Amino acid sequence: MIDANKNTIIFDFGNVLIDLDFERCYQALENVLNVDWSSRKLPQIIIDAIHKYDRGQINDEELIAAFQNFNPNANPNDIIYAWNSLIGEIPNERFDLLNELKDDFNLCILSNINNLHINFITDYLETKHTITDFEDRFFNKVFYSHLIGKRKPDEEIYKYVTETLSAEPSQILFIDDMDENIEAAINFGWNGRVHKPGSEITEHIGTYLSETGFK
Fold it and tell me: Residue 182 and residue 180: Cα distance in Å, rounded?
């Protein structure tokens, strides 16, 4: 439920609330597929598959098949393990931050994410933090790309979120680690701040809020 009298903070998930380790993921995929992706740029066939997967347009098996183009003998479970190695940790202080913020703001997540990653995160939250109600406990609404069929930075996703929340764009602050996602949000009328990977959201949220006039 959204409180129309409160401003809304929308967090990206990866590299804002949960750490990501792209280097570890690249290395794991290279090992499983016997490929050299030292340029750290994925082949276009994989990029296309990931974008479709993020929109829920293909399933787990079809994503795995895209990777198997590079090694037909690669074990699906090994591919899944490598794929999930992208996901890192959520330090306890970030849960504390969300608890502090939710009294004064509507809180949401807007994430390009997929079935395997969200299942992995759900298991991580329960195993590591004994949290089984993450979305309901900390957020008014979550927007996962694979469930809504839309992906950042496409304009349609910002329109969808704004209409779903029944919010004025000027009442929204979006925090994301990618310039193009923030640029698209600002073009739609949202407030936006780029959160650089490796920086700690608990240390920067005060600045983001004050710069936006939300605090």
Answer: 5
